[in-house]
Amino acid sequence: MTTVEVTVPTSPGEAAELFGDGVAVTVVGGGTIVVPLVTHGQLHPVHALMLHASGLDELVDGDTLTVGATVTLARLAEIAPEPLATAARIPDLEIRGQGTVGGNLHTGGDLQPALIALGACVRSVGAGGERIEPVEDFLAGSEPRLVLAVELERPLAGVYLEQRRTHSRTYAVLSVAVARRDDGVHVAVGGFAERAHAVACPSVERALAGGATARDAAAAVLEDVVPEDDPLASAWYRRRVLPVLVARALEQLEESR
Ligand SMILES: Cc1cc2nc3c(=O)[nH]c(=O)nc-3n(C[C@H](O)[C@H](O)[C@H](O)COP(=O)(O)OP(=O)(O)OC[C@H]3O[C@@H](n4cnc5c(N)ncnc54)[C@H](O)[C@@H]3O)c2cc1C
């Protein structure tokens, strides 16, 4: 039988120290993904770093909204601006109440496009120490990092839409987040390919800035992403639905003026 080292840090500093360079560390946030994997013998942690008492659940609502890594999706849904609040309101109530922001970012969850559209940054620690970077840069990284918090400015307006199968216990087939910020409209999409993280849509944003209608600008989303087949939906379906979803989100953003 293998032994598992279980550590329970009681401060963010201690969590960072125990995480170190993250090699051979399994971080446990809300555990909604990790715990079933361990239970079913699909994950064998060497060092489980439990975050529940780490104090990483801070929420600071000033000029910048700072959301600690262990803030639950349910709590986030209550305080976040759109499009993040709707993204956090995932249909499965048990997962919403237990799943955390840090775990969601790490697992391709529905928060990703909303955070990108908001221009949010991730504060994390790992090899090389603490750093803060845009969500997209963080998601593109490959070395282990402990998420400490996400930071964002409240936008002027935002809309989050998703296409989902009726059963609540699945991920969104496609998700779209749009946010009007001081420097214009920002668009991000997720769910278009099983292994891809959410991305910004610069082609759509450029078309909008150039005066295109919502529908014409939305068509440019297929220049920004290549939809793929996965068990939830086909690439064919995604190519047809994604521009419609983006156009609807942009129209709703326009109506919110
Ligand atoms: C039935 C079911 C339905 C679901 N529905 C949805 C849905 O509709 N939308 C959606 O977005 N997600 C959904 N999920 C996925 C998931 O549960 C959530 O995204 C949740 O937010 C994950 O957070 P957690 O804290 O429970 O993650 P955990 O299980 O604790 O961890 C998940 C991963 O993230 C890592 N991790 C956790 N916290 C940190 C941190 N602070 N820093 C670095 N790494 C970390 C862990 O090591 C692990 O690799 C669903 C899951 C289930 C089981």
Structural descriptors:
alpha+beta; Uridine Diphospho-n-acetylenolpyruvylglucosamine Reductase, domain 3; Enolase-like, domain 1; 2 domains; five-stranded antiparallel beta sheet; binds flavin-adenine dinucleotide
Report on the architecture of this protein.
This protein has 257 residues and is of the alpha+beta class. It folds into two domains: 5-107 and 119-153, 2-Layer Sandwich (Uridine Diphospho-n-acetylenolpyruvylglucosamine Reductase, domain 3); 157-255, CO dehydrogenase flavoprotein, C-terminal domain (Enolase-like, domain 1), CATH 3.30.390. It has twelve helices and twelve strands. The protein has helices spanning 12-19, 34-39, 73-79, 84-88, 93-98, 101-106, 111-117, 135-140, 202-209, 214-219, 221-224, 235-255; strands at residues 5-7, 25-28, 47-50, 59-61, 64-68, 121-126, 129-134, 145-153, 157-163, 174-181, 184-190, 199-200. It has a five-stranded antiparallel sheet with strand order 4-5-8-6-7. A hairpin with an 8-residue loop joins strand 11 (184-190) and strand 12. The mean pLDDT is 95. Flavin-adenine dinucleotide binds next to strand 2, helix 5, helix 6 and strand 8.
